[in-house]
């Protein structure tokens, strides 16, 4: 009998992480959920089949917590880790001149350094499971820098670059590296203010003419990415359009971003 496959998901208490946990559990996978939001962890766990989930209150900036959580989870899976989903992130935005240094540091520490922590620490667990995969959550903001979300975009460009680099570095070890490049996702994450403006991040995105994508579509894309061969998996109309425009119509995309920042700053 084949051993049950296992996925460890950061940011598992809501949004993309929650939807992905539900989909993988429905398809027979054992799920490890990590998040700083303990209430969210409990809510996600309650959605999954009994006996299929373990939860770990964890901050992705905490390297010791990474080790402790992965040790604990793989102890329940017979040492197996098929997928590490580096998904945790925050959406603090706004023009960089309006952001505090504390906000800037926090976005970089969680969205980029947290992903680097997961990759460096997670490799040892993935390398002992044949056909394993590191899956990272990037963003449409990693296609062309999004005005009004400059620091967020910078972190997601970093995630995309890391994915491409590790796809090469880890190839000989048999560990796949993939990322999701979703359009802006319709979750409470986007309801927070964009810097010091009166606009939410969601308003900045929609004012720039960009659609929002549902979490279920991203969860299915996560499944496809893990089982496919594409390094980058684009999700949603906005991501597809931005990828096309970045290659073929960069001037038009540049003008769109200029309109977006002007609207969000009004």
TrEMBL record:
Residues 5-173 form the Ketoreductase domain. Gene3D superfamilies: NAD(P)-binding Rossmann-like Domain. Keywords: Oxidoreductase. InterPro entries: KR_dom, NAD(P)-bd_dom_sf, SDR_fam. Belongs to the short-chain dehydrogenases/reductases (SDR) family. This is SDR family oxidoreductase. It comes from Sphingomonas echinoides.
């Amino acid at each position: 009998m084949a051993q049950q496959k296992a996925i460890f998901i950061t940011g598992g208490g809501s949004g993309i992480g929650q939807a992905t946990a539900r989909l993988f559990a429905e398809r027979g996978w054992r799920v490890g959920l990590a998040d700083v939001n303990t209430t969210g962890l409990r809510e996600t766990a309650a959605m999954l089949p009994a006996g299929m989930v373990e939860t770990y209150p964890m901050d992705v900036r905490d390297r010791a917590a990474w080790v402790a959580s992965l040790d604990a989870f793989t102890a329940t899976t017979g040492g197996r880790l098929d997928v590490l989903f580096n998904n945790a992130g925050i959406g603090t935005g706004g023009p960089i001149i309006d952001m505090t240094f504390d906000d800037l540091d926090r976005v970089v520490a969680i969205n980029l350094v947290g992903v680097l922590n997961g990759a460096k620490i997670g490799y040892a667990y993935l390398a002992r499971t044949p056909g394993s995969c590191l899956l990272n959550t990037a963003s449409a903001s990693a296609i062309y820098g999004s005005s009004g979300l400059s620091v967020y975009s910078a972190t997601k460009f970093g995630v995309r670059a890391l994915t491409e680099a590790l796809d090469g570095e880890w190839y000989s070890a048999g560990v796949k590296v993939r990322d999701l490049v979703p359009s802006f996702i319709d979750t409470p994450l986007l309801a927070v203010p964009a810097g010091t403006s009166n606009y939410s991040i969601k308003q900045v995105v929609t004012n720039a003419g960009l659609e929002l994508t549902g979490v279920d579509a991203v969860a299915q894309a996560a499944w496809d990415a893990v089982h496919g061969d594409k390094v980058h998996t684009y999700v949603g109309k906005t991501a597809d359009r931005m990828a096309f425009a970045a290659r073929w119509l960069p001037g038009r995309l540049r003008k769109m971003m200029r309109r977006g920042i002007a609207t969000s700053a009004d």
